[in-house]
Amino acid sequence: MTPAPRTAQETTIATLTLRTGFEVELLAPAGSDRQVLADDLAARCGGRVRRSSHTDSEPSAVPGVGLFRHLSPAFDVVGPDGAPVARLVDDITIEADLAAAPRTPPGHRGWYRVLCDDARLLRLVERQVDPAAALPDVLAPVAALFGTVVELVGGAARVNDATGATVAVAMPLPGGRERPCEVITPPLARDHGAALDALLAPARALGFTVPVEAAVHLHVDGSPFRRPAAFANLVRLFGRWREPLWAALGTNPACRRLAPLPAELVALVERDAPATWADLAAAARGTGVTKYADVNLTQLVAARPARDTVEVRILPGSADAAEIVGRAALVERLLLRCLDDRPVPPPGADAARDPAGALAALAGIGA
């Protein structure tokens, strides 16, 4: 997929000041996998790779089970001092390129997924198992916890509880699923472009490409937006300016798991919203906010957030650090505008004619 062209604004403001984490979706070439990139990055920095598990979910084909949650192979690259360099994981939204190419047989390198139909059970399973264990052995600690044994059935491993209810199943990784590679950075406080390039240049050299459904996600610290005025502006920006943002950033229309903010949330901040943050966050949770929107506000309004970030999900896929930072810089300026207590206005007629220019004006670029 050819990345969208950079806007004039992106070429002039490509400097970031906020602590920002990036998620960049790539695809390994046929015959390769995300561990190849992890090993290369570790060798370059004199660090090492730690095997871990990545949690995700997907629709279930089993009657009566809406979702299967699973753990899949992930690789954490750490530097010589143990500091995180990058985390490489699967992304189940990456499908089109896999469907268009011959898939490897299931169980590449002996990799597998651990599946469960209960999020709480899966969190328990993850704490018990060794992600580097072989498939027949990985669920042994779980079986011991439930006082049962691991059953090996047709290449899979299963643990049931004493009543026969299935707790978890380990199955060979589906063919091709070793190739998607979401590169997750730690929060970067400075030299964002150089840090990204140190990850993406080696990926390009190894033949990694940008998949059809790719996106880049940005995570910024959430605490400044836990004020009613700032939160309302954040909702106004992504709720009212959706079309100009997509046009100016070149959002990938093939990207999955994007959606507008709930209309009820947009209406909430425009009427007499609760004056305290605790009350506003509780009201926002009742509007149906979801992770899979243009901006993920779930952690911002959660009563017990797992991470303290706002996640912007509408940057197009790219393997070029300068392109990513250029677009991220425009987003950053818009986020900083949200911290100004003056309400973000709705887009005017100029936003349809010149989306990038209207957003630059809103962000104060060139003022």
Describe the protein in words.
By secondary structure, the protein is α+β, with helices and mostly antiparallel strands. The chain is 35% helix and 22% strand. It has helices spanning 8-12, 34-45, 96-99, 119-128, 135-138, 140-146, 192-205, 228-240, 242-249, 263-270, 277-285, 298-301, 321-338, 350-353, 355-363, and strands spanning 20-27, 48-59, 67-78, 84-89, 112-116, 150-153, 156-160, 166-172, 180-184, 215-221, 295-296, 309-316. α8 crosses α10 (263-270) and α13 packs across α15. The radius of gyration is 22 Å and the shape is globular.
Sum this structure up briefly.
The protein is of the alpha+beta class and 367 residues long. Helix content is 35%, strand content 22%. The protein has 15 helices and twelve strands.
Topology of this structure?
Layout: H1 8-12, E1 20-27, H2 34-45, E2 48-59, E3 67-78, E4 84-89, H3 96-99, E5 112-116, H4 119-128, H5 135-138, H6 140-146, E6 150-153, E7 156-160, E8 166-172, E9 180-184, H7 192-205, E10 215-221, H8 228-240, H9 242-249, H10 263-270, H11 277-285, E11 295-296, H12 298-301, E12 309-316, H13 321-338, H14 350-353, H15 355-363
Antiparallel strand pairs: 1-9, 1-10, 2-3, 3-4, 3-5, 4-9, 5-8, 6-7, 7-8, 10-12, 11-12
Helix pairs in contact: 7-13, 8-10, 8-13, 9-15, 13-15
Helix and strand run:
HEHEEEHEHHHEEEEHEHHHHEHEHHH
Nearest-integer average pLDDT: 93
Query: In angstroms, what is the radius of gyration?
Result: 22 Å
Structural class based on helices, strands and sheet pairing: alpha+beta
Number of helices: 15
Q: What gap, in angstroms, lies between the N and C termini?
A: 35 Å
Strand percentage, roughly? 15-25%
Helix content: 25-40%
Unreliable sequence segments: 1-13
